[in-house]
Design brief:
This protein is of the alpha+beta class. 25% of the residues lie in helices and 45% in strands.
C-alpha cells in the first residue's frame, strides 16, 4: 500500500508538471488580438481552450481603446461560433491564425468625432504641411469635415477652405465613405480633388483582413459618437475560460509617443 501511494504521488506530480509546462492556447490566442489591436483594456472568453486541430466552439472579445488600422475604437466587442482556425502548433511566427471557416461572427464598435479627427490628421492629411485645421463633426448620419489647404505658388500664397460631407455606408465586411460632397471656398466642385486623399483609407474599416464572416449592417450617430454593429449584437456568456489585460503606464506612454511620431 505504501508503495502504491508513492507511485500515485509521483504520477500526480508528473501530471501537474506536464500541465504547468503545457502552452496556454487561450492566452496565446488572446496575445494575437492584443498585438494586432493594442487595446488599453481587454478581456477574452472561450467556452474551452482551442483544440489541437484549431477548432474553437465559442469565443468573445471585448476591448477598450483598440487600434484598428490606425484609428482608435473606443469600444470593440466581438463573438464567434464554431470557428476552425490554423492549428495552434503553427501559430508561432504568424501575424494571426487564419480563419478557415466560421459559422457566425457578430461585432459592435464605437468611435467619436475626436477619434476621426485624430485619424485624419495623422494618416490622411498629417504628412502634408499644406493641410491645416482639419475638423470633423458627425450629425444626421453624415460626417462633415472642414480643412484649409495652403498652396505656395511662385508669385503668391493661397489658403483654400475645403468642406467635405459624406456618409458611412456598410458594405459586407467593410465600412466605406460614400455620397461625398465637396466645396472649395464654399462653392460646390468636383470630388476629384479629394478622392486621391481618400483612396488610401477606403474602405474606412474592413474586417476582411481577418477573414471573418462579419457583416456590418447598421451605423448610428448620437452626440458626436458613431456606433457600428452587425444585425445581431455580440454578448458574453457565463462560464468558460477568461483572460484579462490592462496596459501598464509604460505601455500607454509608448503608445502616445508612437502616435505623436506618426503625426
Amino acid at each position: 500500500m505504501k508503495y502504491l501511494k508513492s507511485c500515485l504521488a509521483v504520477l500526480l506530480l508528473l501530471g501537474a508538471s506536464a500541465a504547468w509546462g503545457a502552452p496556454d492556447r487561450g492566452q496565446e490566442l488572446f496575445g494575437v488580438f492584443l498585438r494586432n489591436l493594442a487595446p488599453e483594456k481587454a478581456y477574452f472568453q472561450l467556452s474551452s481552450a482551442p483544440r489541437e486541430n484549431g477548432y474553437i466552439p465559442w469565443g468573445y472579445l471585448e476591448c477598450v481603446n483598440a487600434d484598428v488600422r490606425g484609428m482608435r475604437i473606443r469600444s470593440l466587442k466581438m463573438d464567434c461560433f464554431d470557428a476552425q482556425v490554423t492549428p495552434p502548433a503553427q501559430w508561432a511566427g504568424m501575424e494571426h491564425p487564419r480563419v478557415e471557416s466560421m459559422l457566425a461572427c457578430h461585432a459592435e464598435a464605437t468611435f467619436t468625432e475626436d477619434d476621426v479627427n485624430d485619424f485624419l490628421r495623422r494618416h490622411v492629411f498629417g504628412h502634408e504641411k499644406e493641410w491645416q485645421n482639419v475638423r470633423v463633426k458627425m450629425s444626421d448620419g453624415r460626417i462633415n469635415a472642414t480643412a484649409y489647404y495652403r498652396a505656395d505658388l511662385r508669385l503668391m500664397r493661397l489658403k483654400i477652405r475645403l468642406d467635405l460631407s459624406c456618409r458611412i455606408v456598410p458594405r459586407g465586411t467593410a465600412l466605406w465613405l460614400d455620397d461625398i460632397q465637396l466645396k472649395v471656398n464654399r462653392q460646390d466642385v468636383s470630388t476629384g480633388m479629394v478622392e486621391k486623399a481618400l483612396q488610401k483609407i477606403q474602405p474606412f474599416i474592413d474586417m476582411k483582413k481577418y477573414n471573418l464572416p462579419l457583416y456590418l449592417s447598421k451605423v448610428e450617430f448620437r452626440n458626436g459618437q458613431c456606433s457600428v454593429h452587425s444585425r445581431i449584437l455580440p454578448k458574453p456568456l457565463p462560464g468558460g475560460l477568461r483572460w484579462d489585460y490592462a496596459a501598464s503606464q509604460a505601455e500607454k506612454s509608448a503608445a502616445e509617443k508612437r502616435a505623436s511620431w506618426n503625426g
